Amino acid sequence: MKTTQEWIKEYPLITDLVNFKEVFWSNPKYEPYQNSANNLPLKVEDVQAAEERLKRFAPYIANVFLETRNLNGIIESPIAEIPVFKQKLEQIYQQSLPGKFLLKCDNDLPISGSIKARGGIYEVLKHAEDLALQYGMIRLEDDYSVLDSEKFKIFFSKFSIAVGSTGNLGLSIGIMSAKIGFKVIVHMSADAKQWKKDLLRSKGVTVIEYKEDYSKAVEEGRKQAQSDPNCYFIDDENSRDLFLGYAVAALRLTKQLEDLNVIVDENHPLFVYLPCGVGGGPGGVAFGLKLMLQDHVHCFFAEPTHSPCMLLGLMTGLHDKISVQDIGIDNITAADGLAVGRASGFVGKVIEPILSGDYTVSDDELYRLLALMRDTENICLEPSALAGVIGPVKLCIEQDGQEYIQKKNLDDKLKNATHLMWATGGSMVPEEIMMDYYNKGFSLLK
Questions:
Q1: DSSP assignment of 53-107, as one string?
Q2: pLDDT digit string (tens) for 296-312?
Q3: pTM of this prediction exceeds 0.85
C-alpha cells in the first residue's frame, strides 16, 4: 500500500480528508443516463419485481405490525416541506438557497424507524418467500397473511439469519426476522449504540458485540454463517436484494412528488442528498431515482469527515480495495450509521457513472443541524440523518458545487429546483438520548 503522502500526491483532496476538513467532490466519471443505462447491472423490471414482492407480503405485515395498517401493510414514509429550516440556513450561511426544500422522512418508517427498514426488511421477506416456496408451504397467488401462524413460525425456526451492522440495519433485520420466526444473530460493531443492542435483545435477537468497527462485524458474521447450511447471511457490502429493496423507494417517490404537485423535468431539476455509510441504502435509492427520472435528478452522497469511505473509493477508483484507515483516518464518528471505513465495491461500481458527487460533514455540524431541525420544524433526527440536510448549502457555496451547476447548465433552473434531503433515521431513539443530542447541538449553535 502507498503511504498517505503518496496518496496525497496522486489525489490532492486527500490532504483535506486526512485533516478532517469538510469537502465537496464532484464526480468526474458521471455520465448522462443514456450513456450508462445499458451497462447498469439491474433494470427497472428488477425494481418492479421487488415492489410486487412487497405487495404480496403487505397483508402479513399489516397483521403483525399494527402501525402499518393505515398504509395496508406497505412500509413507506411521508415527505415534509421544511421552509423555516431553509430560511434559517440562509441566515446562518448568508447564502440564498433557491428552490423548494423537502425532507423524505424515513426517520418515521414503521417497524424500525430508519431507511434500513426498506432494504433490510425486504431481504428478510424475500428469503422467507424463497424458503416457503421451495418447501411447498405457499404459492405466489396465496394470501400471505397465512404466514402469521404457529405453523409458519415452527417452519422458519429451523433456519437462521445473520448480519453485521453498526445499528440500524441490525434493527430492521433483527425485528423482522424474529417476528416471522427465524433465529437471528446480529454482529454489532463497537460504534453501535447501546439502546439499539438492548432493543434487539428485547425482541429475542442474539447480539454479538465487537471492539472493532463495522468491517470486523461483517467479516465475523459472514464467517460464522458459512459454517451453518441453514444460516442465511445478509451481506450489506454485496447484496443485490438489499439494493433492490432500497430502490423501490424511487418508484413510490415519483408518485408522492406528483401528489405534492412537484414537477421534475429538464427545467425543474431534483437534487437529492443521501447520508452514506457502506453505500447500500443511498446507492439503491440513487439507482432507482436514475431509472425513473434519468438526467432530471442529481444525487449526492453525504459522509462524516471521519468516515468518507465512499468518496475515497470513488475518487481513487479502488472502491472496496481501499479504506479510510489506509490513509490515516480513524473512522470514529457520532454518526454511528455512517461509521464505515470501507465502502461496498458492488455499490460503488454500480453508482460510479450515475452519482453527481459526495461531500463530508463534521460531527459538530451534524449536532448543530439536529438542534436547528428540531427548533425550526419540530422534527427529531439522529445525528447521521442530518448529513443530507446541509447538501444545498454545499452545492451553492463550494467551488466544485458551483462548477457542477454551471457544467450542467443549471444556473437559470435553480429557482425551479426541488432539494430533497433523505432523513435516514431517528424515531426509534429514546427521548432522553435525543435530548442529549439536542442539548449538545444547541450549545454549539450559540
A1: HHHHHHHHHHHH-GGGGGGTT-----EEE-HHHHHHHHHHHT----SEEEEEEGG
A2: 999 999 999 999 999 99
A3: yes
